[in-house]
Design brief:
The complex is a heterodimer of chains A (183) and B (343). Chain A is an alpha+beta fold and 183 residues long. Chain A contains six helices and five strands. Chain A has helices spanning 21-25, 27-40, 82-86, 128-132, 158-161, 172-175, and strands at residues 65-67, 92-98, 111-119, 138-140, 155-156. Chain A has a three-stranded antiparallel sheet. By secondary structure, chain B is mostly helical. Chain B has one domain (67-100, 116-339). Helices cover 67% and strands 2% of the residues of chain B. Classes of the chains: A alpha+beta (183), B mainly alpha (343). Chain A binds chain B through residues 27, 30, 33-34, 36-38, 40-41, 43-47, 49, and chain B through 36-42, 45, 202, 299-300, 302-304.
Chain lengths: 183, 343
Amino acid sequence: MNTMQSLTDRKKVVSKKEMTFMEKLYLPAIIGGMWITFKHLFRKNNTVKYPEQTREFAPVYRGQHVLKRDEEGRENCTACGLCAVACPAEAITMVAAERVKGEENLYREEKYAEKYEINMLRCIFCGLCEEACPKEAIFLTDRIVPSNFERDEFVYVKDRLVEQMDNRIDITKRQHTGKRSKI
Amino acid sequence: METSELIEKLILIVTLFAVTLGIAAYATYFERKVAAWFQDRIGPDRAGPFGILQPLADGGKLFFKEDFIPDAAEKWLFILGPGIAMFTALMTGSVIPWSTNLTLFGQDIALQVADVNIGILFIMGFLSIGVYGIMIGGWASNNKYSLFSAVRASSQMISYELAMGICVIVVVMMTGSLGLREIVDAQHGMNWNVFYQPVAFVVFFICALAETNRAPFDLPECESELIGGYHTEYGSMKMGFYLFAEYVSLFISSAVISTLFFGGYNFPGMDNFEGNTLAILGVVAMFTKTFIFVFIFMWIRWTLPRFRFDQLMHLGWKSLIPISLINLLITGLVIAFNEGWFK
């Protein structure tokens, strides 16, 4: 006899009783089941016809990264490397360089990223780079990284990451969500 | 045989062949559509309007696949398997009467390829040969899953053919003929066999599901345990033949069920028509009934889970055969009583 008391209330008594004659006939249960599927014939389907219809992304969606510029079109990134340190997938690398005279309209501070690479195959889109960034330079956006046949094509360099001034990427949704409340 | 008769039969054969293949092709399309509707989806809708070119796309794709024969397979039997499956599935359609006689160019044309006086035996015979396609294919593949599937298919066939045969005997006893034309004509108007033999109909229907290897009796295919069963090693159009044969026999089974139990081309109020009008309406009635059964077959497939093998055997030997035997006995007694044997 088991005198042990169960510690949870999830205990269930399982019974394996003989089926009655009606149950053994199967037919009533089968007709019941078929009635259920029949009702589904007239239900509205939930399909989103993808290429024609797209579904709205959640405001916190984390897709392809963008390196932001400020209002005057200067790159925010100072190549501090905090994003690369924060990255759990080690997808980010960069080479820092010093700004020279005449480049003030290109880079906001004296140091900038000469090279900046994100390997989209390694990236897990966790958003820790964005959280680590002290300069509001990197953001994840609602764009999807497109598929490709070449592995090398997934290493995104600066010309694919830095936003164009005539085609700015809206990241306000990311700024107002989550823990990001500084500035 | 006269030349005109020969030409007439040839045209009929070619038409039936084309219609059967066309319906089988579109049965694959509707199978997917029906499945989608039952699961609140849309189903194939990309190839052509509403996806109606989907069967062509599927067929085209299968044709362009590599026609592969495994090294360890028994080459000729491996090729023979799908051929037998397809051949037997197509043959059974030849004895089914599709309607009353059509009069064209002053000739009476029977809408039936061959009015064999043992029609129903012919169908039962070819249905039984159908399992050889699966058995030979499964064995020749030299793959343990395929072999299991072949064993399952044959044991399932043996168990369900008996009950099916007994149900057919009941219908034959009521009609007094093995010819399908006579069986249909005996159900004139609304005088359908299903009203006299509901038990035989239910048993026959269940057996038909098992004979065509459809869910819930699709144990020979059984993706979850046998990874596709007898067509595991098949590819390209050989695979296509197996899948196609299943849909052909689905269509023919539905036609046989409508012929035996639902009056074939008979419909209520048919006495008001005659000649070619009657023949055409008969074709419409026959095909309507057949398509309703095709739909019910699909409906069942997308509702019920697969039987376990012991449940399948239990159902076949311990339930369906005794039920159909008792039904046979009672029918025999009633017929004997009506004929006045006990006076």
